[in-house]
Amino acid sequence: MALSTPSLPTTVPDLETLEKPSLDCGDDGKGKRAAPTPSDVDGERDGEDGLYSRFIGWMALDEKSVDSALKLQSFQPKKWEETDVDIKITCCGVCGSDLHVLRSGWGPTEYPCCVGHEIVGEAVRVGRKVEKDINGCKSNGGFANYCRVPGDSTIRIPDGLASEAAAPMLCAGITAFVPLSEHGAGPGKRVGIIGVGGLGHFAVLFARALKCDRVVAISRRASKRADALKLGADLYVATADEPDWAVKHAHSLDLIVSTVSSADMPLNDYLKLLRTKGRFCQIGMPDDPMPPLEVAGLIERGISIGFNDIGTVKEVEDMLRLAVKEDIQPWVEVRKMKDVNEVLREMGEGKARYRYILANED
User: Fold this and answer.
1) Are 315 and 173 in contact (CB under 8 A)?
2) Which residue has the higher pLDDT, 180 or 47?
3) Across the strands, what pairs with 110?
4) 183 exposed, middle or buried (CB, 10 Å; 0-12, 13-18, 19+)?
């Protein structure tokens, strides 16, 4: 299988709405109208090779669409170039950034749009100028039946890694892996992971796989303690349940990876957990400004603060090889693509443990 590096969400200014009686799929046997599937919508085939030149996806029409209102519609992909690859999507992970984009949380989203950027599938059309040996893809616009991506950004997913496991690694996984890899996480290092969620559970898995001396999971409440320890953490700190946590664990970590994005997070207390010359990397992206820093102590101890968002193609390849070598298994729940609105609702309610995967039906 293969993947591509991230791009902007797929926007479709020339959208052809197909929500007409042709999408009336009948009764589902439970007294409700059955959800439409791609087979219920007539796509347009390209005359040259018989493949679809219009794809079908679950589209957001405005910022309210995040509230269980994505619509199954056809859309026009980017114009075909001989450097492109068309992918028949097998499955796509659901990421917190999808919710941010759907609600215009990081700035105005151009609607209509099709989100989804943790895609795994099969290459069904490869441009003549594509030099890589490929067999699938990862890109944005994954809540759909097909996607079109630049061939140069595709990567084969190695044997031994299931599609459902690979998909969430293509955003959440690589986002968590890169700061660990860049900052030397491994033997002799003590690493803290703030937040045990979609990003955080990957960070714990990778920190353990990299053989760090000590992996500390940090969250607000004790409710995720058992999960964190099962994922590979040596210690779990519940900041809301342990009043003296910042003092008790002060100057104990070499590296902290923060996956949370709350504007009222106890940032300065987190930074006190670092040893001299320690590093703090923020990968959770907030909608609102982060808390102000108490700079004097950071300067005295030589603390470095950095940020990360996704990774390079080579870094993804390195991560996937490590996942196979160490048999890293993310915690995922596979759901049908047609249940996307229900999944988004559950995601917004914080029910994911720890990544949802939307799978297309044959």
Assistant:
1) no
2) 180
3) none
4) buried
